[in-house]
Amino acid sequence: MNLYDVILSRRSIRQFKADSLAREALVRIVEAGRLAPSAANLQPLEFMIVDDRDICPKFFPCLKWAAYIAPQGNPRPGQEPAAYVVVLVNTAVREKMFEYDVGAAVENMILTALADGIGSCWLISIDREKAAQILGVPEGFRIDSVLALGRPAESPVVEELKDSAKYWKDDEGRLHVPKRPLARVLHLNKF
Ligand SMILES: Cc1cc2nc3c(=O)[nH]c(=O)nc-3n(C[C@H](O)[C@H](O)[C@H](O)COP(=O)(O)O)c2cc1C
User: Fold this and answer.
1) Could you please report the per-residue DSSP string of 52-80?
2) Is the model's pTM score more than 0.85?
């Protein structure tokens, strides 16, 4: 797949196969995040790979999935993520306005993962206090986002957004994700 096809085919994945992910694949994903654009090149972000068999099940309950359809969108037992990249902000480097950096880094990681056949879901609904305790995150670092990763066990589809942005699941359990059509968001020269 070329880059454009990867971008267009990307969907948030919340059901994963049981396969584990190679540490090298996870480090490659973080490398793509590390080299993302950074405002003023301050680089306030650090990245924690969580792939330990004992830690993952403890960390999983810190995450909230697919709020519009909860609990239907939760990873089913046995379909939890194989690993996570936790995006940390070093607040001594930057206390605010780091969100653009996070966006660029996370999207780089999402696309790098998908190019290797690894699905992901970007999460910010996190019990940060509990997560920081489990992962031993020190003072001065804030957990911003979590990228949950694994081989996809679902194939969500995009559909045209009509009156609601709420994604939904059909009778076969397939997730439908409404998106505003191009004609409604594209402006040519004048609004
Ligand atoms: C900043 C951000 C935070 C998100 N947080 C969560 C989250 O906490 N839990 C979750 O299940 N999905 C989360 N998502 C995924 C969105 O629900 C998803 O991107 C949206 O429904 C569109 O679906 P798509 O990614 O397949 O295009 C988040 C996405 C973004 C960009």
Assistant:
1) -TTHHHHHGGGB---GGGTTTTSPPTT-S
2) yes
Who lines ligand 1 at CB under 6 A? 11-12, 14, 64-66, 121-125, 156, 167, 177
Q: Which domains does the chain have, with CATH numbers?
A: 3-155 (3.40.109.10), 156-191 (2.20.180.10)
From CA 171, how far away is CA 174, in angstroms rounded? 7
Q: Is the pLDDT of residue 1 over 90?
A: no
Testing ligand 1's pocket by substitution, the residue of 6, 10, 11, 12 carrying the most ligand atoms inside 8 A of its CB is: 12
CA of 151 to the centre of ligand 1 (A): 18
